[in-house]
Amino acid sequence: MKNDYVKRINEARVYDVAKKTPLEFQTHLSSRFHNQIFLKREDLQPVFSFKLRGAYNKMAGLSKAQLDKGVIAASAGNHAQGVALSAQKLGCRAVIVMPTTTPLIKVDAVKHRGAEVVLWGDSYTDAYKHALEIEKKEGLTFVHPYDDPDVIAGQGTIAKEILDEYKKPIHAVFTCVGGGGLLAGLATYIKAMRPEIKVIGVEAKDAEAMTLSLKAGKRVTLDQVGLFADGAAVKEVGEVTFPLCQSYVDEMIVVDNDAICAAIKDVFEDTRSILEPAGALSVAGMKAYIKKHNLKDETLIGIASGANMNFDRLRFVAERAEIGEKREAVLAVTIPEKPGAFKNFCKLLGQRNITEFNYRFSDPKEAHIYVGLATNDTDEPSQLKAMLDKEGLPTIDLTNNEVAKLHLRHLVGGHAPQAKNEMVFRFEFPEKPGALMKFLETMGHNWNISLFHYRNHGADFGRVLVGMQVPPEDEINFEVFLNQLGYPFWDETDNPAYKLFLG
């Protein structure tokens, strides 16, 4: 199997549209993490992503009759642009089905290449099913984003370029994983040519289909998939890619959104380029791998797979990068409500940089303060908490509390003792025009809404914190309502941040 793919990769027709991208040494990252770190800059391709390699290799092999009828693809954006550019180069029709949650920058880029765009569903899976219907109806040729030997071979040319350019020892190569096309192509070629090099896949925490599938020994279908790293968000990995990854991938790493945001900032500091979340997965995984294995003085290569960043999302990235890098602690501190207490609290913080501060009078005896502080290492939040507790100022570390980071910082001081029987839930829904109104309509009018916070964070999922007054005798009906609502939810009624500032 390896030899077959090596032959396919060596003969792949990608350079009519793709270019050999540079392998760049990352000065700041290497210095910070005490390893030799390189990035394979696929974000510098004409469509700002590696995806055109596989798309063109597949399409260049189609017959004239197939090209005359046209092609169809389903994609969250990057594959779509690769197919559109390839169709433009080959002079054929291209229809692209994209989820309605796809960032506008990717939709516009596909249209600009002359492709026809159909927006359908909330996820890649929805778009894929609709594309198959159009394929049958119109007799088009389907160009799969990852589950096709020709596409896998096209992506595998990245590995060939890396090994052709860098002859010295390499400890590991890291790449993002969605359906597994890039990972399969890289792993198959690297293990055939230099089997000592580790190949490591990286997935987002709420989209780890490959990680779970490899653990289970079979393809696992996720019930729902997070869309922050939309370029690598699929519910099920490929039928063709999975056995290749089973055979040749050394390890999988899962990272959260904060770590991805921190990785985007890391790459920006070295290159002054802004990767999209999926494009930065390799760097986030590399950092986690270094920490896990206490790695030093090794050569590590990450695939900077894409830079199709929606500009609105930068607000969310900037807000969460410092937390993801463990450079900010978020604390809830209780101090006496008396003259001089606030000044004493500030003295205890010393010369630390305060990144955020929220306070509102709500109790004649105690004041609850929400504070963000710049930190230098991962142990500092716990050290701060211990110091403040010792000084008689009870402290809760909220650094990893989603309610605090997403909602509470905008609601501090909102105690409502009159809101009897309040239950608080956090919801997520696909972010698109009209999505908030649809969510509100779905909520119905059976229970009084006593708290509501929504803010567009520039992410693909809208996040809402809702308080509802539910009498004890109605709790069973309320539970049925939640399960029928159709949105992911988390019960935050006992969240310490809510109790301290809002309950």
CATH architecture of the largest domain: 3-Layer(aba) Sandwich
**Helix fraction bin:** 40-55%
Rg (C-alpha, Å): 25 Å
**And the CATH topology of the largest domain?**
Rossmann fold
Low-confidence stretches: none
Q: Strand content of the residues, in percent?
A: 15-25%
Strand order of the largest sheet: 1-2-10-7-8-9
CATH class of the largest domain: Alpha Beta
Total helical elements: 20
Backbone structural class: alpha/beta
Shape: globular
CA-to-CA gap between the ends? 60 Å
**Total strand segments:** 18
Overall mean pLDDT stands at 88
Q: Give a quick account of the main beta sheet: strands, pairing sense, barrel closure.
A: 6 strands, mixed
Total individual domains: 4
Secondary structure layout:
Layout (H helix, E strand, L loop, with lengths): L1 H9 L12 E3 L1 H7 L2 E6 L9 H10 L3 H6 L1 E4 L3 H13 L3 E5 L5 H9 L3 E4 L4 H15 L2 E2 L6 H17 L6 E5 L4 H13 L4 E7 L4 H8 L24 H8 L2 E5 L1 H15 L9 H13 L5 E6 L9 H11 L3 E9 L4 H9 L4 E5 L7 E9 L5 H11 L4 E3 L4 H5 L15 E9 L4 H9 L4 E7 L6 E9 L5 H11 L3 E3 L4 H6 L2
Parallel strand pairs: 2-10, 3-4, 3-6, 4-5, 7-8, 7-10, 8-9
Antiparallel strand pairs: 1-2, 11-13, 11-14, 12-13, 15-17, 15-18, 16-17
Helix pairs in contact: 1-8, 1-9, 3-5, 3-8, 5-6, 8-9, 9-11, 12-13, 12-14
Question: Which terms would index this structure?
Answer:
503 residues, Rossmann fold, Alpha-Beta Plaits, 4 domains, 20 helices, 41% helix
Characterization of this structure:
It is a single chain. With 503 residues, this protein is an alpha/beta fold. The chain has four domains: 2-49 and 149-322, Rossmann fold (3-Layer(aba) Sandwich); 51-142, Rossmann fold; 326-400, Alpha-Beta Plaits (2-Layer Sandwich); 415-501, Biosynthetic Threonine Deaminase, Domain 3 (Biosynthetic Threonine Deaminase, domain 3), CATH 3.40.1020. It is built from 20 helices and 18 strands. It has helices at 2-10, 27-33, 51-60, 64-69, 78-90, 104-112, 124-138, 149-165, 181-193, 209-216, 241-248, 257-271, 281-293, 314-324, 341-349, 380-390, 402-406, 435-443, 475-485, 496-501, and strands at residues 23-25, 36-41, 71-74, 94-98, 116-119, 141-142, 172-176, 198-204, 251-255, 299-304, 328-336, 354-358, 366-374, 395-397, 422-430, 448-454, 461-469, 489-491. It is globular and about 80 Å long. The protein starts with a helix and ends with a helix. The model has no long low-confidence stretch (mean pLDDT 88).
